[in-house]
Amino acid sequence: MREIDVELIAGEVARLCREANCDLPPDVLRALEEARLKEESPQGRRILEEICENAAIAREERIPLCQDTGIALVFVEIGQEVHLTGGSLSEAINRGVARGYREGYLRKSVVADPLRRRNTGDNTPAVIYYDLVPGEVLRVTVMPKGFGSENCTSLGMLKPADGLEGVKRFVVEAVDRAGPNPCPPVTVGVGLGGTADRALLLAKRALLREVGSSHPDPELAALERELLEEVNKLGYGPGGLGGRVTALAVHVEAYPTHIAGLPVGVCINCHAARHRTWEWRGEGDD
Amino acid sequence: MIDLLRLEVPFSDEVARELEAGQRLLLTGVIFGARDQAHLRFATALQRGESLPLDLKGQVLYYVGPTPAPPGRPCGAAGPTTAGRMDRYTPLLLEYGIKGVIGKGKRSPQVVAALQKHGAVYLAATGGAGALIGRCIEEMRVVAYPDLGPEAVYRMVVRNLPVTVAVDSRGRNLYEEEPARYRLR
Asked: Which Gene Ontology terms cover its molecular function (chain B) (predicted)?
């Protein structure tokens, strides 16, 4: 049994919020560089150059990559041997988000009520997901999710008879509907199975995978490759102003489902596919 | 076609009508930042026959909600937000006298028609390039609706802000034309 004070977690969450918003992960940068070499459209190449330059400015000058610094999605994996002290973990995470967004000069984009729309002023509450896992580990990932892309989310409750072809059609149509709006080149997360809510969560989690990595299941890996190819035939290209690279990657995650259904969740991330993880394995580790 | 045109903002009616889809511009001068909630308030005022909190006739609106300015800087990140969310209000604002709007993403057929009717343009900035565009903003201050926080109306002095003419006053629409050229399905 290991003990951890939730205040330590709050501090790390604050740091993750700041860093995720200013530093694009190396896998995303690599994918953008590769896209620059592949893109045929001159307009598209120019936009990719701007995107890469933007990432360099953000990193060097500690300015957010994008003015939409998102709602903070926080994925927490807690080992069942970990004992939390010092109060509520959810409250500590929200204190961390508030601090990170204040200290990092990040935009506060959260309103307390979807209809009355009063800004909470500190970007809380975060959207937090908890997973209980074996052992003494604690893993916290912050994913600032902007709404230019989040507004392009799709859910399809397909019939089992729709099968693989139905899934492919649904995903490509979802990216087609999104068009230029989610700031292409995008990464596409696809969640298959579970229930409606689980399919969307799988799709969201798929966006946390290393860009361009393949699913360990060869059939799903093949589906990912095929979907990427099909999505890139849409022609939207960087910035949606035409080109070959509409998506950098398609990641698929699957989960068992009911005999009567085939849920398909599609979550899209903009080219600023931001996220940051902190892992704790006992006192003093980082 | 001119490859890269330096352009003073606000621009005259004549200049707005001459701009062509596909032109790349570097904007220098004064623009006004306004997004969802500010648009709602503008539209409500105009529909009631009231005046806007400031005279925006002939001006250029930028759909933006910047990040707070860090110490020693006029502005943080300030890339464009999705323009389609403003579609409901744009024809009314064009009728009022807005000459240009800056954002990202596709517009409704009603907005494209209204741009044509009123001789105005839709300019696309690169979505997500918030740090890069933020550096082009030399002065920024809230001029209306401060209670809206990041959605307040900002007056911005810009230098060489890079945009592309996406929809011109003749109704040419780059968001339709260009993807169609690369579409393979």
From this structure: fumarate hydratase activity
Kindly state whether A118 is in contact with chain B, defined as any CB-CB distance less than 8 angstroms. Answer: no
Residue A172 and residue A169: Cα distance in Å, rounded?
5
Q: Which of B182, B184, B185 to mutate to test the interface with A (most CBs of A within 10 A)?
A: B182
Provide the CATH topology of domain B4-182: fumarase (3.20.130)
Per-residue pLDDT reduced to its tens digit, A227-279: 999 999 999 999 999 999 999 999 999 999 999 999 999 999 999 999 999 99
Give the residue among A212, A199, A200, A285 at the shortest CA–CA distance from A248: A212
The pLDDT of residue A134 is above 60: yes
Residue reference for tokens 């596919």 = A273
Q: What ranges do the domains of chain A cover?
A: 2-22+65-145, 148-269
Residue B2 pLDDT level (bands cut at 50, 70, 90): very low
Judged by CB atoms closer than 8 Å, whether chains meet at B166 and A272 is answered as: no
pLDDT in tens, A37-63: 999 999 999 999 999 999 999 999 999
Contact B135, B79 (CB under 8 A): no
Please give the structure tokens belonging to residue B77: 């990140």
pTM for this entry? 0.95
- Report the CATH number of the A2-22+65-145 domain: 3.30.360
Q: Which chain A residues are within 8 Å of B135, Cβ to Cβ?
A: 57
**Which residues of chain A from 225 to 284 reach within 8 Å of chain B, CB to CB?**
230, 233-237, 239-244, 270-272
So where are chain B's domains? 4-182
**pLDDT tens, residue by residue, B50-65:** 999 999 999 999 999 9
Task: Tell me how far CA of residue A242 lies from CA of A39, A236, B22, B80, B166, in angstroms.
Answer: 10, 5, 11, 18, 12
Query: CA A177, CA A188: separation in Å to the nearest integer?
Result: 13
Would you call A153 an interface residue with chain B, using a CB distance cutoff of 8 Å? no
Residue B98 DSSP one-character state: -
DSSP A162: G
Choose among B119, B77, B96: nearest CA to B39.
B96
Q: Which of B78, B174, B184 is the closest to A235 by Cβ? A: B184
Can you spell out the DSSP letters for A170-217? HHHHHHHHHTTTT-SSEEEEEEEEE-HHHHHHHHHHHTTSPTTPPPSS
Give tens-digit pLDDT for A67-110: 999 999 999 999 999 999 999 999 999 999 999 999 999 999 99
Q: What is the ipTM of this complex?
A: 0.94
Residues 122-151 of A with CB under 8 A from B: 148, 151
Q: How many residues are listed for chain A in this entry?
A: 286
Candidates B133, B70, B105, B31; CA nearest to A107 is B70
